[in-house]
Amino acid sequence: VEQGAGSNLGARLAAGEEGAINECYAALGPMVLGYLRRFVPRDEAEDVLQRVFYEVWRNRDRYDPGRSLEAWVLGIARKRAIDQLRRRRSNVVPIDELRDLAGDDGRELAERYARASEVRRALGRLPTEQREVLTLAYFGEFTQTEIAERLGVPLGTVKARAFRGLRRLADLLGTAG
Amino acid sequence: VTGHPQHDLPGLLLGELPPASATAVDRHLAGCDACRRDLAAVAVAASALRDLARLPAAEAPDLPPLHLPVGGAYA
Fold this sequence. Notes:
Chain A is mainly α. Chain A has helices at residues 5-14, 20-37, 42-58, 69-87, 95-102, 104-124, 128-138, 144-151, 155-176.
């Protein structure tokens, strides 16, 4: 809601505040589940998801509120996904998935998911008109001229909203880090 | 171009400015620290958005309820 809501949530979690784990789950759960499904089958992903957030709650005192909550939670998710793949005793050892998760590339991918979640949250804090223009440009891949036609506003308005939105997004990402 | 062409910076990064405008903005940037800082900030935000858009299944829409073990939640 207010600026710095992300780091604020992390601080409340670390302090053991009641309700913080549910807020954390609502805010980051969709991203963690999207990440887990990339590596483990659907039904297993939901089990791992529960384990991840149980661990987040149990180890909340180990979280440093000065660092990214997303990155910390994703680090836990990555470890639990690796466990899940190693646990399988079938003849089919999921070597590819393990390699994708465990190495440097896996670390990098976890960081991308964490970053993506931060970006999505920052995007949600922009004024509606700015978010609308940026969503159409970067997710809808419309040109600024097309966006102006679609919204029925002058091109100059679209340009101004795009600039203000990106500028504000950069500030939010810089301070949320 | 009169004043600072800040509003053209996203279009410049997207490659959507007409060549003459792009050249004028480029010329302004060469001599304006404030606009170069704005360009850098806008570029960082734009690349973050692009990466989010490219990440497959960055978010699962169907989040199941959270079940913490009994007694574990606020113990």
